[in-house]
Amino acid sequence: MRFLTQRKHFRDLTEQEVIALAISSEEDDARIYRSYAEMLRSDYPATARIFDGMAVEEDQHRARLIALHEARFGPVIPLIRREHVAGYYARRPVWLVENLGIERIRAEAEAMERDAERFYLAAAARTSDAATRKLLGDLAAAEAGHQATASHLEETHLDEDTRADEDAASHRQFILTWVQPGLAGLMDGSVSTLAPIFAAAFATQDTWTTFLVGLAASVGAGISMGFTEAASDDGELSGRGSPVKRGLASGVMTTLGGLGHALPYLIPEFWTATVIAFIIVFFELWAIAWIQNRYMETPFFRAVFQVVLGGSLVLAAGILIGSG
């Protein structure tokens, strides 16, 4: 079945190709660790030093593998990489991981070493050739050694106080980049669309027209809030993070906030749709109050008073205007 894929199966690799694959893998991992270090250096210098040390370890293992290859097969190393081998463990692109927070990056680094160790152990168990088994076992031991080195580097560079400071900085960045603009969008989408949606509902008592008004108001508000947030601050001086991320959080949450009480009007029966919309509004306002209390440290009853009172006034205004 090899003609179905351009990739070679691991079981078909020669010992030279296995060594070449290990060399390229070590090189890729070193580059990933250096990318993490450079990305984290300004905000999390202690963790950046850990990744610097892990990259050096990868370089040392790559040098040992190159020396082994030269001793056994000569200086010309075959070009073979992870993507050339079917079933070989993959690495997530750096740009997919960098937005997930410092703890997720640390966990990704640990998973990288575990994946490599497990793969080499499984590959060694499937071969009957003693020399190949030894080679794969040595590679697995090297990956396990990387994990031990990572733990040692973490103990050296990341004491309890430093880790607490970095975690606090990461939490604050998460709040500024995602929660704060998302909450502002949710409040705007949930509250500001109450008046037009319920005014249209009570003025027309036509559920489809009401849904279209709600859809237009929600999407329009989402686009407006998203662009406004993204254009308001580039994040360089304020430290609020990427304007694209903030704009996305604000725009999406604004749209969802409005759609929550617009979607019930897909139900043809007016009063059934309206009662469901009222219930959804209740939960939306309580969710906003909970987020304010949980992430913005606003006293819960003050958050409830502000959000519920404001939302109720806007809701009442929409109903009165629509019924007039």
UniProtKB/TrEMBL annotation:
Its main location: membrane. The chain crosses the membrane at residues 208-227, 273-291, 303-322. Gene3D superfamilies: 1.20.1260.10. Keywords: Membrane, Transmembrane, Transmembrane helix. It comes from the Bacteria. Residues 17-152 form the Rubrerythrin diiron-binding domain. It is a multi-pass membrane protein. It is found in: Endomembrane system. The keyword Membrane applies. InterPro entries: Ccc1_fam, Ferritin-like, Ferritin-like_SF, Rr_diiron-bd_dom, UCP035918_rubreryth/DUF125. PANTHER family: BLR7895 PROTEIN, RUBRERYTHRIN SUBFAMILY. This is Rubrerythrin family protein.
